[in-house]
Specification:
- The chain is mainly α.
- The chain has one domain (3-138).
- It contains five helices and no strands.
- It is flat and about 50 Å long.
- The model has no long low-confidence stretch (mean pLDDT 91).
Length: 140
Amino acid sequence: MSFREKIHWVTLVTMILAFGWYFLVYPWRIVASPAGVMATAGMLVPVTIAIIVAMTVATAFLAIRSPREVHAREDERDRNIHMRGTHFGYYPLVVGIWINIFLIFWGIGQAEQLNLMIATLVVAEIVRIGTQLYLYRRGY
């Protein structure tokens, strides 16, 4: 498994764990109130810190274990996998943004819209990273 693939696995697991916690623990009963926006902001701080710490520690650990792979140049296969993953991640992002736009006109609350935007971004990233991992595993 290449260094880039390992980093993708760490990113996928970190995103699922961090935002899984966020969406499971979020106080949904107050989402329609002004306190919902503050709850979102308050919960995004530990999620962001956790992602930064986990990714930094994992990247440093993996880089120490295989320093030669860290400096390996990205080849055509890596660029193609990156491009295709980004391509597939684009579609849920666009669909989520359009849903957000339509819901603005139907009077969705600020905290609800903020959570939908976060969910849109998380789903798009998981699709992007998942596609890239699939292509790495498939030997594309």
